[in-house]
Amino acid sequence: MSLPRRLLDPIRRHPGRAAALVPLLLLVYVLALIPSTPGIGDLRKTRAEAPSVVVSADGQVLAQFRRINREWVPLARISPHVVDALIATEDNRFYRHGGIDLLRMVAAGFSTLAGDRQGGSTITQQLARNLYPQEIGNAPTLNRKVKEAITALNIEIIYSKDEILETYLNTVPFLYNAYGIEMAARTYFDKPAAKLGVLESATLIGMLKGTSYYNPVTNPERAMQRRNLVLAQMAAHDKLPRQQLAALQARPLKLDFERQGEPLGPAPHVAQMLRKWLVDWADRRGMDIHADGLVLRTTLDSRLQALASAAVARQADALQLLSDRSRGRGGDKPQLQAGFVALDPHTGHIKAWVGSRGFMQDQFDHVQQARRQPGSTFKPFVYGAAFMDGASPRDQWVDQPVAIRVGASVWRPSDHTPPSYAPMTLRDGLVYSRNTITAQVMDQIGPQRVAALARALGVRQSPLEAVPSLALGTSPVTLREMVTAYGSLANEGRYIEPVLVTRVEDRDGKVLERFDARTPEQAMPRELALTLVDVMRGVVEEGTGAAIRQRYGLEGDFAGKTGTTQDNSDGWFIMMHPQLVAGAWVGFADNRVTMGDAWGQGARSALPMVAEFYQQALRARLVDPQASFPVARQDYPGGVLQVQARSDEIAARPGQVARAAPRQQRQQRERQAQTWSRPSSSFQDLFGRMFGR
Fold first, then answer.
1. pTM check: above 0.85
2. Which domains can be identified in the chain, with CATH numbers?
3. Which of 80, 93, 601, 663 is the most exposed place for a label (fewest CB within 10 A)?
């Protein structure tokens, strides 16, 4: 006897018993599928999913890390027209069933047999498919339908009807990377879901039958027909006055379409960096940054961030116009780029971070990723090393041609203006950014000691080539490193590793991990660091950064340094205030593309960004104008010594340091103290031309 006949024979002999087994077999079948469907815990977790957020120090949300482009809105913030259209079209017995509408399933079955295929799924069943596409799927199989039914019943047990509607409307996709009714409303009608009218609501609900087929952007006629059918359903179920139906159906779609990108937030480069960091942090703890509602507390100040972004955008746009004009009408116009960062020197807390002119235009971070030659902003490390070697800001050197042998070659640094052949103090060598003086100091101190000081202060990631030209900033570094190093000077010579994240909390505010600032390291003796800060006050008082006072009228205790690299490839300016240190870099991504001579120097490209930032920060009282560095202003004689370069006490030859013995220097200072005066007009003209450096 064949196997089928053996199985059928008991059924023929005992039909009653066989019929009684059917429900039991169905029960076994359903029970066998339950383990492969989402459990109660999974359903609760889905409803409770929340994106992680990045929060500023002043409590403002800077970014949200969503799995998809969706903004969850409560049912109270969704237009009632949307709910009416959804229920009338998709599930008019929604409030009368427990997740499965048996009457609708039977009706849909008969219609399908008659050749008019219809779905019998309720809103709850559709939600089950939307929430669990992998576990349930859309295949037209019995297994899929049973899983869908089981999940729908569980959903109805856990959630209220309003919660089901809210979840459904916030999870359904609407094309163009728009998930949920809020993003759909913004995408197709440029308004929030709460303000959707009856026609707009009917259009969006009409898309649910087939988003691509009824896409109002690419298929407006189809979408309008579907919208009108939804309106008719609303009228049929008393959700719309019947006398208004014809007039409403005659009206056009009136789309206001615009794709909704993921919100960048006010600090997009920081947000993207922290997203990667948080993913790694969460993975190690078995957490999900898209669902667990983590709160990342940062040191950024949203107000300072906004000021920095505005200053970079405004000044960079103005420079871009100059660049475009200089290149004429033809050819490609290279896009100027910039970076800006500010930090609290006493805590290391980063307060503002602008990685480029615009994140959509350039996602490369010019604060931390870009390494560029710092030019003269590196010079303070040379003079700082000299002070640590016993030199004084009043020590005199001759401003003359320099030739320094490096192996088989000779390095001959020069300035934009001819050498004066006059004695110049170390203080003035830095204030007026004289390459000849700086090169002689480097030759005396040695590149290794200068590099060591720069690393101790904060230039710790970029390799520094310990060669004489390092004095003029030839080794590429990051803006973040340079501002950190200046922050160490402003912090009385103490290095603090920059801090961006202070703690991670769960959604209830419980601290999961705290990131305290590390113990400061004394990178440079306190008195000498403050001496260097005092010398750098002269840069903004009378030197290459004098525009801070003269053009921008900034009042307060400031010190800083400009920087420009060869052929104006890079423009830098970093400024210190007792409470805030900020720096900017300007240039083209390709350093072979140079900026114009008239505007490319750091004093004219980067300085305006920093100056405007401090202007607005002072105006908003985010920085105290009365704060001062803990070092008295030294009474340095004004400008260059009025003596001839030829002196018995100061004899110099190319390639050697023009430095008198300490006793001779003291005698010379005493003799000249009575005759010290402001520089002559010729020297004033000389240094006036140097302000562009």
1. no
2. 34-47+67-249 (1.10.3810.10), 308-505+517-690 (3.40.710.10)
3. 663
